Amino acid sequence: MASSASRFDDGTFVGFARRHVFVTVFGVAVPLLVFACFIGYPIVYTIYLSFFEWNGMAPQKKFVGFANYAYLLHDKYFYIALVNNAKWLVVSLVFPVSLGFLIAYVMKARLVFAPSLLRTIVFFPVTMSLIAVGLMFLLILNPVFGAFDTLLRSVGLGFLVHEWFGDYRIALYTLAVISGWAFTGMPMIFYFAGLGDVPKETFDAARIEGAGHWRMIRSVALPQLRPVTAIIVMLTLFESLRAFDLIAVLTKGAPFGMTNVLGYLVYMESFWNSRFGYGAALSVVILVIAGSLAALLLGKVLKGAFDV
Amino acid sequence: MAEVSLKDVEKRYAMVPVLSGLNLDIADGEFTVLVGPSGCGKTTTLNMIAGLESITGGTLRIGARDVTTLPPKDRDIAMVFQSYALFPHMTVRDNIAFGMKIRKTPKAEIETQIRQVAQRLRIDDLLDRLPKALSGGQRQRVALGRALVRRPGVFLMDEPLSNLDAKMRIEARSFLTKMHQEVGTTTVYVTHDQAEAMTMGSKIVVMNGGKIQQAAAPLEVYNRPANQFVAGFIGSPAMNFLRLLYDGNALLDQACRLRIAVPECRRAALAGQQGKTVTLGVRPEHFRILQPGAIPGSDSIAFNVDVVQHLGHEILLDLSAGDHRCIARLPPSDRSKLGDDRLFSIDMDHVHYFNGDSGENLIDYAWQQ
Amino acid sequence: MAEVSLKDVEKRYAMVPVLSGLNLDIADGEFTVLVGPSGCGKTTTLNMIAGLESITGGTLRIGARDVTTLPPKDRDIAMVFQSYALFPHMTVRDNIAFGMKIRKTPKAEIETQIRQVAQRLRIDDLLDRLPKALSGGQRQRVALGRALVRRPGVFLMDEPLSNLDAKMRIEARSFLTKMHQEVGTTTVYVTHDQAEAMTMGSKIVVMNGGKIQQAAAPLEVYNRPANQFVAGFIGSPAMNFLRLLYDGNALLDQACRLRIAVPECRRAALAGQQGKTVTLGVRPEHFRILQPGAIPGSDSIAFNVDVVQHLGHEILLDLSAGDHRCIARLPPSDRSKLGDDRLFSIDMDHVHYFNGDSGENLIDYAWQQ
Amino acid sequence: ASGVKMARAAPAELRYFYRAPWPSSEVYANWLIDEWNKKNGDRVHVTGASVDGETYKTKQTIELSSSNPPDLFYSWEGGRGKEIVDNGFSADLTPYYEKYGWDKKLNPAGVTLSVYNGKKHFVPTEMCASVVWYRKDIYEKLGLKVPTTWDELMANAQKGKEAGLAAFMLANQKKWPSQFMWSAILVNKHGLDVYDGLINGTIPWTDPRAVDVTAMMQKLAQDGMFEPSFNSIDLGPAMVPWTQGHGLHWYQGSFNLGRFRGDQPQCCVVPMDFFPMPAFPGKKPVMSVFAEDTIMIHANSPNKDAAAEFLDWMVSDAAMSKKLEIDKPFPSNVNSDLSRLSEMEQRLGKAMAESGSFTFMHVDHATPPAISDKFLDGVQGVLAGAMSPEDAMKLTEDEAARVKKS
Amino acid sequence: MSDATLNASAMRRGSFASVLPKLAATLLMLVLAAVWLGPLLLIVMTSIKSNAEFLAGPFALPRSPTIQPYIDVWFGLGFGTLLRNSLIYATAGSALAVTLALVPAFALSRMNVPGRKWIFGLLLTGLMLPQQTVLIPLYDTLRTFHLLDTKIGLIIVHGVYGMPLQVLILRGFMTTIPPEIEKAAYVEGATDFQVFWKVILPLSVPGILVGYTLNFIAIWKEFVFGLVFLNSEENFPVTVGMLKLNSDRYLAVFNLPAAGLVISQLPIVILFILTYRQISGGNLSGAVKG
Ligand SMILES: Nc1ncnc2c1ncn2[C@@H]1O[C@H](COP(=O)(O)OP(=O)(O)OP(=O)(O)O)[C@@H](O)[C@H]1O
Ligand SMILES: Nc1ncnc2c1ncn2[C@@H]1O[C@H](COP(=O)(O)OP(=O)(O)OP(=O)(O)O)[C@@H](O)[C@H]1O
Ligand SMILES: [Mg+2]
Ligand SMILES: [Mg+2]
Question: Does the record's keyword annotation contain Cell membrane (chains B, C) (predicted)?
Fold first, then answer.
């Protein structure tokens, strides 16, 4: 009998599946099947396609081996996009993530009046389509009649006025900040919820030990919110690598390709320049970057936060 | 070191009063224990002393200063929480050093202090561990270390031992007591535990419903409870209460099955209660079994034994006589069995008489002394 | 109703053994209490009986059936958890009915059963409430009701009272005991609480490190512990241990300040220990104070009083003599003070002798009986 | 209106895929389809689907190669059209041109553009011309004359600039507007054959003449001839300075007439007129006339004849007149009645019809997108002062080489 | 109340240090409100101006408010159908995503599925994939199942692509349900399915609400899938219809895009008002807890 016990508890999938049919079918098999059809197949196909040259229309694809990857190594646009992605990520981490945290903290510490109103206002843009956001900021940051420049000038900050989309030195940051504006609500509510899970006593203890707000944030709140931070950073990372809609709406890479990011480059090369093989290679690069950064994050920073 | 004094202190949450007119003086170096049922306001009181909760009325003084509106960091206090509230991401060393770093104590000084405290608390070999790698008792000592190291004027502790298991709790109890004897810092200590309340403090403050019921030395509270609430709250198993009618000489129950003569010396105190209900309070250890065949006296009751609980070093009997239910504490040698009918005498020197309505203790011990 | 029998039961988590070679027979209708330090495997044992954890080796029988690999639903058991584990989204009624609904018991039948159980547990007026609207004690009774209503063969309870406060715990203890007396279902009960362990079960199973140390009646375990671990674990405050050298006649400490003669009748049992270390076990209640001026006997020790703990109904003294530390339990009348040097006698009829290395009790009580 | 109809099989289903850049385009397309279905719905039933211009391409790429492609679809001419033709998606329409006599009624420039490898592959349904738009009122105010030579134009521009105006509006945020001027200058200064050489890859983009034109653009930018922030204004917002009178000239396509009209039925919101890009010394000016809307028939369509019939309906006098009424100009049918347009618009329409068959498309239409993309980036970079003309042309040439290789 | 008292008395005593953070925070809030509210107000303002008025003074307050832009854009783009479609996609798509994610989340949080780390990691790749990459192969898949240009096809795509994040959120949420509750159900005789259906599912409702709302928002915003996998106007969601507003020709008339923008955002505002307590309250806690 003991043998039968260990036979059932052999820790293999078959053993598990036999005892938990429902969970195996609907919790593992069905989702994996659906995943395979709609997500797995596209991934495999993308990898496959990255070894071909194809204009998206021709019935035949031309096998080129690693030529697409080889080209990628010298593609100036690829490097611009890569660097831009890094900048974008940094801005996203500094602006929406930090600010989202700050707002959440300020609300949790009951330092502001009407915290729920603030929360509502800041969260609202999260619900807006990026097309809408883009259109809005095209109006607001317009160099001719944009409200923002007008505002800056009227409060005597005219020297700050720039060509927000036209100046190749700042256009990318403009985009990243706009995306941050639309995104801040997300880290905010995640942090707000996360702060609710941090034991109140640790804050009390820190207060008694004499910690001010700055110290409280740095030494008590943030370290304990590391799992939340890691999830947010991960989602931000994925988002920023995939991002293309805002760029498609706002600049299309202008000025002269300086606002290209990898996600937009994929779109450009595939659908605009009809180089689907090359676009696929770029996609594979995105997947690899996202996957390895996520693995790094999960393995190091966030050890245990996703323990399943 | 500092004395703490609360004067007419009040606390309201959104106009709902939680504490009202609290007056309490804690002498410098005194170890005061706060007890009371859940929700009576112990934590709130402590938090107000710490400055974690605002005070909505009255004055709080620590040492010579009025600190009613000062933030926690300016109150010269340290606090140990029930959950320890260690910073989970910091090593034991960093946890202990936290407050000193904030106060910009020189590095070398911090190091010395930590070493001293760690030695005294026997955690010197744990300094580089994270809290999650510590046992409950060790965590508790680290929390204590974090509080001790700053040499605060006042220690506040909110049920610091309640997360420990029975064995560790007894150890930690002795440990804390000794610690207090050594450093002599004014301490306010909240607990649920009878034994802690009785043994640790030089003063017990019994609270109920946001009010102080009695504040006195432990044995004083045990032996001379101010009212029925205190009497029932302190002591485990709790004091037995018998609601009886006073006829001027004796206490009777309505079915007339019980008649307990009141000793001469107590009659004066009970004078006003004639014809009214008086609650007789008898601690479990003040029952004595009369040998079978003994003649029932004026202080004896016949009980039926409902449950026998052998605890090894003693036996608890659940008893009933009509509607009255009692628990008696007997030596392990007792041989009573479930279902037995036995005659018990009451040690009338140690019983208490409470006003049947207000619960006030009818004996004025202060006068008696 | 069913007996439970574990035969060579093992549990490994990822090849790390947690329980090894567990053998335990629980008779039909017996109330067995599982005790042991935290992490010793009590919950794991219970979960294995319930079928919530797989058994990695050995056989488990409930009633006449081998249930080693059966899922929980086929084992005819019910369980009460420390956290009650009520379904928070269901009313009390639905909580209690859950198991019966799953078993497709007819509606009318369910209604009758619920009414019966609810009356017995005095929760009939709570049936339509959600768990969050109940007090701790009420929740505990609902959890009990959920387990009772199905009339399972075996009851499993994992520290069901530990979330209650002291007062309620004492009440619930009596209640559970009575309940068991009435329904007589085989029960396995895990607890941390000394009093529960001693008073509730007809058998105590003491576990340590995944092994059973002793399984016997409560007073048997208290008075005749199988080894030093059991002796130290059962009883509060714990038994005092003095590591001494046996010279064939008496037990000596290294500094030769202590000499305790071993009674004649025990010398046979200690025969093999000559020249070796023997641990003498003395329960706190087996110290007696000798009046000042009394002549030290062969069983008396001079102790220094380190801490005095007045508990009201008794006094605990922390004592030390050289490196030896003891706790003595004395009646409230005792007047010892901190720092006193007092002479204590030991009740040598009740002491225990343990092998200094293995901790085995050197007296073979079975033979003695 | 025949008497008794025979029971017939289910009607042929035609799927028509179009671009609807204006709200009015949608209205017109609906009218077009409804009218057809009213008359022929029981025989050939048409369903339409539209998407906006920029995203149209994504959609088109996927749709064309699918197993169920649209029967009729909008396409660009030039480089993109060539890709479609080369991949065999586009049916040869030459027989239908003959059958329906489309050559005779359609704009000759448009017909020329439809020819790939000697065969006609699309039918233009809307035509455009690029001209220099100017503010008539400001011209009068400053006492300027309509220029006929590049130098006169430059002189006028200089005057405008001195008057505090933008000599030329560019609105180059989306990169493509600048190349209108670039190609017009190149064609007019260096000749159509040089331009064709660049487009066909027989002349490298690094050719000094291409660099020269790029440098001219750079000079204009450096001289402050464009509106401030020209690289970050889009065409739409540029209407604000244009209507407010901050710009003097604007070399742009006639498809902007819709914009210039604003809410009015006829052009324009502000007094404005046009003249063709003036001549360079010793060169004959060429006006760019190109097809804005062009429709192809899918090679795999089972209903090509029916599709051609529908196409014929699209370019019929009636449909084209309606298009003028609802949508914006200009119809590709040269016989269309332009009388409901303003005098200026009619003039432009006539000029287009008479421009002959040898004109040019701007770079972004003429070359495959990959090349034009880099080209546009290059020009934008030059205008921003971040790139040299040589580098910009090198960027383009590198891309052209890469495209040629594959 | 109590804080205000504390604040007042602290000020009375001139303890500036304790008021400073609060002052700073309040200031911060005002700035933030302006930064986040400003653009939205501007759009609403633009949407009720005539084009001429906008061109005259883009930043000025509307002098003669008109709803004409709303009427134009409503009928021009056929917002009735668009909104209805979007509602269908968002409602059904997120329902599908949540449904697909529930049992996996249960399995990954409560069951000892061998290899669950790999399964979870695999599902997460769905979050990393750039959408524009999958268009062509996904088009193939949909064609294979005859789901192109059908509402059901787009719902499935949205459902499947919403699933990974739902698994992440629900798994996190379910891990916070005490294991004893589930054990109790097993002991009471429940099967895996009954534990899931009668205990875990009802207890996960707050988490489901959060996940559903976030997914709803995500689908409402999405346009690439809709654009590529749909052909018929009667199937287009709002965002695809809105794309026309982004064509630079449309942008000649600013009030129309602004009005379209407001219309397209209205349903989400309503949803948001109804559920924001859920999503912004502590209910996400499960989702982000380790
Ligand atoms: N933030 C709050 N808002 C409203 N009422 C509160 C708040 N905090 C505590 N209370 C109420 O104040 C009373 C006292 O609470 P307190 O925590 O001080 O009790 P306690 O004596 O510490 O109880 P316990 O022994 O359970 O810890 C309780 O009735 C509680 O409900
Ligand atoms: N899932 C698990 N994986 C690995 N080890 C485990 C697991 N669950 C329990 N253990 C280990 O098994 C041992 C027994 O655990 P168990 O919970 O049975 O102890 P216990 O006697 O109930 O303790 P307590 O009194 O604290 O409840 C412990 O050492 C624990 O660390
Ligand atoms: Mg408390
Ligand atoms: Mg346990």
Answer: yes
CATH of the domain at A115: 1.10.3720.10
Q: Is residue B363 part of a domain?
A: no
Q: Which residues of A touch E254 (CB under 8 A)?
A: 139
Contact list in B for residue A207 (CB cut-off 8 A) is: 51-52, 71-73
The model's confidence at residue E14, banded by pLDDT at 50, 70 and 90, is very low
Dump pLDDT digits (tens) for C222-278: 999 999 999 999 988 899 999 999 988 889 887 777 888 888 888 888 888 888 999
Confidence (pLDDT) at C32: 96
Are the beta carbons of B352 and B361 closer than 8 angstroms? yes
Q: Which residues of chain A have pLDDT under 50?
A: 1-9, 307-308
Residues A29 and A123 both lie in one domain: no
The residues near D179 (Cβ < 8 Å, ≥ 6 apart) are: D362, D363, D364, D372, D375, D376, D379
Identify the residue whose C-alpha is closest to ligand 2 atom 22. Answer: C43
CA distance from start to end of chain E: 35
Q: Which residue has the tokens 């009918």?
A: B341
Mean pLDDT of B56-78: 90
Quick one: tokens of A108? 């949790």
* Any domain includes C333: yes
pLDDT score of D206 more than 70: yes
| Among chain E residues, CA nearest to D176 | E248
| Structural domains in chain B (count) | 2
CATH number, residue B165? 3.40.50.300
Q: How far is A201 from chain E (nearest CA, A)?
A: 18
C210 with C178, same domain: the answer is yes
Single-letter amino acid code for the residue at B343? L
Residue E52 lies in a domain: no
Q: Whose CA is nearest to atom 12 of ligand 1?
A: B18
Helix ranges (H only) for B53-193 are: 92-102, 107-120, 136-148, 166-183
Distances (CA, A) of B131 to A307, B89, D58: 20, 8, 56
E36 domain residue, yes or no: yes
DSSP β-ladder status, B31-35 and B203-208? parallel
pLDDT in tens, A261-271: 888 888 888 88
Nearest by CB: A6 against C8, C57, C66: C57
What pLDDT band is residue E276 in, cutting at 50, 70 and 90?
A: low
* Residue C308 domain boundaries: 237-355
Shortest-distance ligand to the CA of residue C208: 2
Q: Quick one: CA torsion of C235, C240, C246, C250, rounded to 10 degrees? A: -100
Distance CA A188, CA A173 (A): 21
Q: Hey, how many other C-beta atoms are within 10 angstroms of the C-beta on C348?
A: 18
Residues E15 and E109 in one domain: no
Q: For an interface test with E, which of B9, B10, B54, B89 has the most E Cβ atoms less than 10 Å from its Cβ? A: B54
The beta-carbon neighbor of E25 closest among A106, A197, A307 is: A106
Cβ of C219 within 8 Å of Cβ of B166? The answer is: no
Question: For the whole model, what pTM was predicted?
Answer: 0.85
Q: Which pLDDT does position E278 carry in this prediction?
A: 62
Asked whether residue B192 is domain-assigned, the answer is yes
Partners of E10 on chain B (C-beta within 8 Å) are 69
Taking an 8 Å cut-off on Cβ atoms, the answer to whether A165 and D232 are in contact is yes
Residue A192 structural domain: 69-300
CA–CA dist E159, E156 (Å, integer): 5
- Average pLDDT score, chain B: 89
- Is B220 a member of any domain? yes
